[in-house]
Every structure is written in structure tokens, then in C-alpha cells.
UniProtKB/TrEMBL annotation:
SMART domains: AAA (SM00382). GO terms for molecular function: ATP binding; ATP hydrolysis activity. The keyword ATP-binding applies. It comes from the Bacteria. This is Multidrug abc transporter atp-binding protein. It comes from Lacticaseibacillus pantheris DSM 15945 = JCM 12539 = NBRC 106106. Keywords: ATP-binding, Nucleotide-binding, Transport. It holds the Pfam family ABC_tran. PANTHER family: ABC TRANSPORTER ATP-BINDING PROTEIN (PTHR42711:SF17). InterPro entries: AAA+_ATPase, ABC_transporter-like_ATP-bd, ABC_transporter-like_CS, ABC_transporter_ATP-binding, P-loop_NTPase. Residues 5-227 form the ABC transporter domain.
Length: 295
């Protein structure tokens, strides 16, 4: 499969402070990648390196071109975490001005219509609500018909409908071969949409792969229920790793969910409100960062 990004032995420091340490990874063309890490893990620095805003030690190839080749930037769109706030400029004027810098240019009127923002075309940027401004910032990343899209916390400030629209739009773009790199603290969203996860920890890659592959490394099942069993009884059930009380519920963490549930079958008459779930991306990430060693 063609690679949209290739990174080999990439390191970067701010002065004497190391941020990224010998990263190597590939990104398949047409994939959605979730870039995850705590604040200070190096996510923003990595994005700037991939977009050519910073230069590091190592090799970076983007869209088949080596870092620094001007052809790269013609195929990149970026949605920064901060929104463009230009008083006196209308939405349409902003998007038209931005698209002028690209060889491939989207039709701004069509772009606004397709994304449900046609009524904002002539509204001034400083008159937009926070959610509207965030949606316009997303469109600013699309004006050059990108083949590679970087999104930094894209859904912050968006309501539910706007979020749903954005994820549908990204899936449509992925289907046409656009590669999408997303950083977000809303891990439940990345869990649902990302083909691959790239987890940074202390300037290094802690994990790269699908959520299913990550989940397989943390083979825990979370079982919740109400009942009359005691903590001592539950701790003796096969596979149970931990037991805790959460209000009226018992919460059991098991390393062998099937064995635990098989044993609990004999007590189903004493249990109610039973729910079973594998570890979420959020809970796995919380476990990972608890083991982080800060050098």
C-alpha cells in the first residue's frame, strides 16, 4: 500500500530540551490516524515537523516528497487548534483568500453549501459563535483540496450535530483517498473513527496500530452489577483482578471475562443491572500514562 508519510529516526529538541526521540513510523495513504498523548508528549511538535514548520534530525517523506520540497505543501490542509479571528473579514472573503495560495482550489460557495454554512457566507468572522468559527476553521483546511489533512482538536466547541457532520465528511474524504491525522482529547471519538492509533509518550512511540490491536494488549473486561455477593466472594472468582464498590454497584475487572462470567452464572439470581464491557481507549490510555517514566 502507498505511504502518505514516512518518518525515519526523527528527533527534535528545543535547545537542550529533547521533545522527540528517534521516531520511525509510516502512515498508509487514505487512512485516518489518531495521534494521542498527554500535554507535552510532543504531538504538536510532530505535526509541525510533518507540515514543514520545524526542521528536525532524521528523514521525513510526505506525499512522496522529502521535507522542504514546496510541492508537499500544495497537497496539505491543516486545521489548527486556534481559530482565525480577523475582524471585518467575511467568511467567504477569508476562504477565498486562503484558497488563492493553492494550485488546486475548491469552489467556496459549494464548500459552504455542502457543509451547511451557506447562510454564513457574508457574515463577518468576529460575528460568529465559537462553534460556527470552529466549523469555518475546518473549511479553511479544505480550500486547497488536500490529499493530506491535519486536524488539531477539531471538535472542541462544536455541538453534537456539527461533530456528527464533521466525522461524516472525514469518512467521505477518506473514501476518496485523503489521509487524515487527528489529535484530540476526545478519545471516544478517535476510538470510533481512527483506522490506526499513534500514541506518543515521553517523546517516543508507545504504540502504533489499530484500536483492536491495542485492546488485545489490555485484555481486561469490566463487569458491573448490583447484588448480595461480598467482595471476598468476588475476589475468589476465576479471572478477577480487582473489585471495587461504586455506589450501589460492584465493579469487577477481569483478565478472563469468559471465565469470570461462567463462574458468575451460578449467582445470576443474586445479580441485577449486569453490564459487560472491554476496556475503552480512554481507560487503556489512562493505564498507559500511569506507567510513564519522566526522565
Amino acid at each position: 500500500m502507498a505511504k502518505a508519510i514516512k518518518v525515519q529516526n526523527l528527533s527534535f529538541s528545543y535547545g537542550d530540551y529533547p521533545v522527540l526521540n528517534n521516531l520511525s513510523f509510516d502512515v498508509d495513504a487514505g487512512a485516518i490516524i489518531g495521534l494521542i498523548g498527554v500535554n507535552g508528549a510532543g504531538k504538536t511538535t510532530l505535526l509541525k515537523l510533518l507540515q514543514g514548520e520545524l526542521a528536525g534530525n532524521g528523514a521525513i517523506t510526505v506525499l512522496g516528497q522529502h521535507q522542504g520540497d514546496p510541492q508537499i505543501y500544495a497537497g496539505i490542509g491543516a486545521m489548527p487548534q486556534g481559530d482565525l479571528r480577523l475582524p471585518g473579514v467575511t467568511v467567504k472573503e477569508l476562504l477565498n483568500n486562503l484558497r488563492a495560495g493553492y494550485p488546486q482550489q475548491a469552489n467556496v460557495d459549494q464548500l459552504l453549501a455542502d457543509n451547511g454554512l451557506a447562510t454564513l457566507s457574508n457574515r463577518r468572522i468576529n460575528r460568529l459563535s465559537g462553534g460556527q468559527l470552529r466549523r469555518v476553521t475546518f473549511l479553511s483546511a479544505l480550500v486547497g483540496k488536500p490529499q493530506l489533512l491535519f486536524l488539531d482538536e477539531p471538535t472542541v466547541g462544536m455541538d453534537v450535530d456539527a461533530r456528527d457532520h464533521l466525522w461524516r465528511k472525514l469518512e467521505q474524504m477518506r473514501q476518496t483517498g485523503v489521509t487524515i491525522i487527528i489529535t484530540s482529547h476526545y478519545l471516544e471519538e478517535l476510538q470510533d473513527v481512527a483506522d490506526q492509533l499513534l500514541i506518543l509518550q515521553a517523546g517516543q512511540i508507545r504504540f502504533q496500530g489499530s484500536f483492536a490491536e491495542l485492546q488485545a494488549q489490555y485484555v481486561q473486561t469490566r463487569i458491573r452489577f448490583t447484588g448480595t455477593m461480598t467482595a471476598g466472594q468476588l475476589k475468589g472468582v476465576p479471572g478477577v483482578q480487582s473489585v471495587r464498590r461504586s455506589g450501589a454497584y460492584w465493579e469487577v475487572i477481569s483478565t478472563d471475562g469468559d471465565a469470570t462470567l461462567s463462574a458468575l452464572v451460578h449467582h445470576f439470581g443474586q445479580l441485577s443491572g449486569l453490564t459487560v464491557a472491554k476496556e475503552s481507549l480512554s481507560s487503556i490510555f489512562s493505564t498507559m500514562i500511569q506507567t510513564e517514566v519522566v526522565e
